[in-house]
Write a structure and sequence with these properties.
heterodimer; A: alpha/beta; Rossmann fold; seven-stranded parallel beta sheet; five-stranded parallel beta sheet; 12 strands; globular; B: 334 residues; alpha/beta; 34% helix; Glyoxylate/hydroxypyruvate reductase HPR3-like (chain B); D-isomer_DH_NAD-bd (chain B)
């Protein structure tokens, strides 16, 4: 398969890059100085694109690659791929569901604990040498807090299962009610926000869910409420969230994703009620290897005319 | 003239209402003094007097039957000797290592603690610290706040929690709360305790060293006693291994801190999440430079909810005592 051209959209994983290089003719898109010339030169040899949460295959790229057969995403989110265009052109699309579910859910709970119990702030406090007895700073209890989940898919359910072990009552909003679960359903995100202490974004990013957490939702969540985002930056109206945090109209936030990664609003850097992470939801050695193997497995299956492992389209 | 200790606000001192001695105010009292107002007792606040403690006790505490203590005001044989009428020691903490239990037992002095009300918060903090260390939450947060993400790109990968074997040291109310939470993440829970717990569905290890051999992480949840002092020693840490993580929400002295620092600095264990230290508020300087440790200033149980529940329990124990009713949370020898 060495003659098959694979375009990797951006750096994402050294092991994956290495393996793609071994098995195919790998083109590293981020190293190309003149992208349009490159595409004109190589458009007939590139049959696969490997993307991730940062970069995938938009309509423009798809049009520029007439021999494109498959887009394999090193992520479960598909928001960087023009799915309609792929369907139209018969291009297959795969992602990496399930293997990263637990890591992302673990991180969501980790963020909740870090925000409510001020773990990062405590760590800063000790490192600064400021710890003196008598400086009793109370944090907020996590056990028993009401957790509201936007999107009760694989990741949402995994978050619910973990939060239940902390005796957190679970409620959710989804496109449709999941009657097979015992959790409380709210038909709108505003109602969900008004009735929980911690609101978690765990749905996929689509046209409909862009800015699903807006000013109204933030107001409903309120001055004691905490927002956790392990979905996509554009799920949240970021300027609204920033001003709510700065003005203390919302209790705190744990954010793994931002609207314009890797840019993070600097107004957040001085706040002690936020935890800011550089998109590490699936960022463990174990999971990234499993994701890479899934990408490789899907590509291999496709080029050997076998059934795809985790097809989306 | 030495100053009289102040009485409860808005109340005339009444000879009938018995005193509860407080040598130094526990955080609970400082933050929630309003909750300690009772018709059944009044506080005798030794720290408000200009007299040195020894003299204060001799002068004013001869008929005191109950004392409210905490880590800052330990109940030593010397103190007990100065309180000839003492019948009850109430501590505002779950920990009891600051009370000479042998002496209390010998003299028939009852002891109550605040076990149970702090278990959830302590367990939450322990799990939070474990996730933080494995997933590098505090260090990644520092990375972002220092504006390093745009320049440096992807942050180093952490390690998955779910496939870890977690050894719980001490399966009391805090340890079992930790176990319950970790099960939901898919962790394999193992434990060491003085004796196996018949209700526990987890494999029991009769000593900490063997537990460490079989574990990827240790969570210290036991009390500090003569037996557990420095129980987590170099041998245990080396057995835990280079990827091993230690989380301590119990007492600093259960771990040989000097050895732990050496192990961390030389990469003989993988990381640590520490809420307690041997000489608080002193923290070994070398720890402040490490990225694979998460440090917390002994606040694993510092939540308003936990504190208010502890206040209620302390007051309830004191009121029960003065009404000759059964104590709510007396220490039972296990």
């Amino acid at each position: 398969m060495e003659s098959i051209g694979v375009l990797m959209a951006c750096p994402m994983n050294p092991y994956l890059e290495q393996e793609l290089h071994k098995r195919f003719t790998l083109h590293r898109f981020w190293k190309v100085p003149d992208k349009s010339t490159f595409l004109t030169t190589h458009c007939n040899s590139i049959r696969a694109v490997v993307g991730n949460a940062s970069a995938g295959a938009d309509a423009q790229l798809i049009e520029a690659l007439p021999k494109l057969e498959i887009v394999a995403s090193f992520s479960v989110g598909l928001d960087k791929i023009d799915l309609a265009k792929c369907k139209e052109k018969g291009i297959r699309v795969t992602n990496t569901p399930d293997v990263l579910t637990e890591d992302v859910a673990d991180l969501a709970i980790g963020l909740m604990l870090a925000v409510l119990r001020k773990l990062c702030e405590s760590d800063r406090y000790v490192r600064s040498g400021k710890w003196k007895k008598g400086n009793y700073m109370l944090t907020t209890k996590f056990t028993g807090k009401r957790v509201g989940i936007i999107g009760l898919g694989r990741i949402g359910m995994a978050i619910a299962k973990r939060a239940e072990a902390f005796s957190c009552p679970i409620s959710y909003h989804s496109r449709t009610e999941k009657t097979e679960t015992k959790y409380k359903y709210y038909p709108s995100v505003v109602e969900l926000a008004a009735n929980c202490d911690i609101l978690v974004v765990a749905c996929s990013l689509t046209e409909e869910t862009r800015h699903i957490v807006n000013r109204k939702v933030i107001d409903a969540l309120g001055a004691k409420g905490v927002l956790i985002n392990i979905g996509r930056g554009p799920h949240v109206d970021e300027p609204e969230l920033v001003s709510a945090l700065v003005e203390r109209r919302i209790g705190g936030a744990g954010l793994d994703v931002f609207e314009h990664e890797p840019e993070v609003p600097e107004e957040l850097f001085g706040l002690d009620n936020v935890v800011l992470l550089p998109h590490v939801g699936s960022g463990t050695v174990e999971t990234r290897k499993a994701m890479a193997d899934l990408v490789l497995g899907n590509l291999e299956a496709h080029f050997l005319n076998k059934p795809l492992l985790t097809p989306v389209v | 003239m030495e100053s009289q200790p102040s009485q409860e606000r808005n109340e005339q001192p009444t000879k009938e209402v018995p005193h509860v001695l407080v040598m130094k105010p526990p955080p609970l009292l400082t933050l929630f003094e309003d909750k300690f107002i009772s018709t059944k007792f009044q506080l005798l606040k030794a720290w408000e007097s200009t007299l040195p403690l020894h003299q204060f006790l001799t002068t004013h505490a001869g008929s005191v039957r109950a004392v409210l203590c905490s880590g800052a005001s330990p109940i030593t044989p010397h103190i007990i000797q100065l309180l000839p009428s003492l019948q009850l020691v109430v501590t505002a903490s779950a920990g009891i290592n600051h009370i000479d239990l042998n002496e209390c037992r010998r003299l028939g002095i009852a002891v109550t603690n605040a076990a149970g009300v702090f278990s959830d918060d302590a367990a939450d903090a322990a799990v939070g610290l474990l996730i933080d260390v494995l997933r590098k939450i505090s260090s990644a947060d520092r990375f972002v706040r220092h504006g390093l993400w745009p320049a440096t790109g992807d942050y180093p990968l952490g390690s998955k929690l779910g496939d870890k074997r977690v050894g719980i040291v001490g399966l009391g109310s805090i340890g079992s709360a930790v176990a319950k939470r970790l099960e939901a993440f898919g962790c394999t829970v193992l434990y060491n305790s003085r004796k196996p717990k018949p209700w526990a569905p987890y494999p029991f290890y009769s000593n900490v060293h063997e537990l460490a051999v079989d574990s990827d992480a240790l969570i210290v949840c036991c009390g500090l006693t003569a037996e557990t002092r420095h129980m987590i020693n170099r041998q245990v840490m080396v057995a835990l291994g280079k990827q091993g993580i230690i989380v301590n929400v119990a007492r600093g002295a259960i771990i040989d801190e000097k050895e732990m620092v050496e192990c961390l600095v030389h990469g003989e264990i993988g990381g640590a999440g520490l809420d307690v230290f041997e000489n608080e508020p002193s923290v070994p300087k070398q720890l402040l430079e490490l990225d694979n440790v998460v440090l917390s200033p002994h606040r694993a149980v510092f939540t308003p909810e936990g504190f208010m529940a502890a206040c209620d329990l302390v007051v309830a124990n004191l009121e029960a005592f003065f009404e000759d009713e059964p104590l709510l949370s007396p220490l039972i020898d296990e």
